[in-house]
Recover the amino acids of this structure.
């Protein structure tokens, strides 16, 4: 996955939804901070981009996520044509620390704009350490590989990750505790 | 981490058994035990049973159907692959060959890290072996390995658009 494909996905998702802004969650959101040429090869990434629609209710978020999936999701014409897909997701997809919305990284440029240059749509990508919190709370092999590779390359600060793991919702405290043990094991 | 890792860790803690001690008694190498505990290596029930026996425990496996709470994108992916699985046969694998090969090459060039790389190698092997049972398992399974296999599925472009849209509609 490349940075220009992330921008393409942002533009497409906004056009499908008729919204000026979407939120990018999942590992591809790291491309909002670093382009693919800088990322370590061991940072696990696939060819799907998780997009969280911005809506006023969970029901509306789910409806919009399904709309995205129908048009640009797995095995869609869009997927066939471009080689990557857009997954519409809801907030249950990721466990995030308090304050994550204030730290989102905006991606907005000519490549996120409609034909003619306007409007320029915006993709709000998870902050890199917030992304690592979400990945560590999910705690799958690919998540640990992803965070480990970013940490080893000095792209994320595990002290910040550790601090934010203490700020996830109480309902996810168990997952955060497991993640904290993993961080501690890395010294 | 899978449930086997959790069971092993629990019994080691309860019995005060160290990795070194368990390795000595069981004959299983300590690095392997470490990998089982961290979830970095999968552990069969036979292996878990063997390790538990060394600590005075017997493994009891309970069979019951369990609903698998997939998130929306993983559920859609499962539904799509399940639909395509209805067409699966040795002949279908052969007919799908050129598309699967093209998709595999594309994925191998653009996907990075683990377990994606390993799962792509597994897809390639399953298709090469014309292993219908293995492919079907990867398409329909709800175990972690199958779910992760579908994250790098090379089966794009094989289900008709009509069937694809119907399945996605059902999922929404």
């Amino acid at each position: 996955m490349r940075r220009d494909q992330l921008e393409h996905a942002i533009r497409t998702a906004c056009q499908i939804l008729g919204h000026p802004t979407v939120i990018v969650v999942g590992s591809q959101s790291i491309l909002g901070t670093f382009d693919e040429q800088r990322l370590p090869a061991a940072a696990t990434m696939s060819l799907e981009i998780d997009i969280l629609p911005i809506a006023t209710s969970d029901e509306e978020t789910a409806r919009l996520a399904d709309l995205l999936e129908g048009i640009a999701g797995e095995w869609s014409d869009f997927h066939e044509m471009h080689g990557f897909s857009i997954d519409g997701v809801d907030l249950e997809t990721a466990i995030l620390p308090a304050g994550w919305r204030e730290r989102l990284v905006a991606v907005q440029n000519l490549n996120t704009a409609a034909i003619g240059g306007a409007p320029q749509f915006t993709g709000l990508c998870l902050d890199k350490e917030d992304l690592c919190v979400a990945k560590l709370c999910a705690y799958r092999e690919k998540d640990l590989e992803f965070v480990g590779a970013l940490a080893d390359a000095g792209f994320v600060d595990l002290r910040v990750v550790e601090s934010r793991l203490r700020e996830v919702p109480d309902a996810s405290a168990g997952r955060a505790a497991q993640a904290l043990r993993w961080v501690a094991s890395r010294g | 981490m899978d449930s086997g890792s959790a069971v092993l860790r629990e019994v080691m803690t309860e019995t005060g058994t160290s990795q070194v001690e368990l390795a000595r008694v069981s004959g299983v190498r300590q690095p392997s035990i470490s990998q089982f505990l961290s979830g970095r290596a999968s552990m069969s029930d036979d292996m878990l049973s063997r390790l538990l026996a060394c600590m005075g425990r017997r493994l009891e496996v309970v069979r019951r159907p369990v609903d698998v709470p997939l998130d929306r994108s993983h559920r859609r992916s499962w539904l799509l692959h399940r639909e395509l699985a209805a067409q699966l046969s040795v002949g279908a694998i052969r007919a799908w060959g050129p598309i699967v090969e093209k998709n595999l090459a594309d994925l191998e060039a653009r996907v990075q890290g683990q377990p994606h790389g390993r799962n792509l190698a597994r897809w390639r092997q399953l298709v090469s072996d014309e292993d219908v049972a293995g492919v079907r398992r990867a398409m329909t399974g709800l175990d972690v390995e199958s779910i992760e296999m579908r994250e790098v599925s090379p089966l794009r472009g094989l289900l008709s658009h009509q069937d694809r849209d119907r399945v996605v509609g059902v999922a929404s």
In short: Chain B has ten helices and no strands.
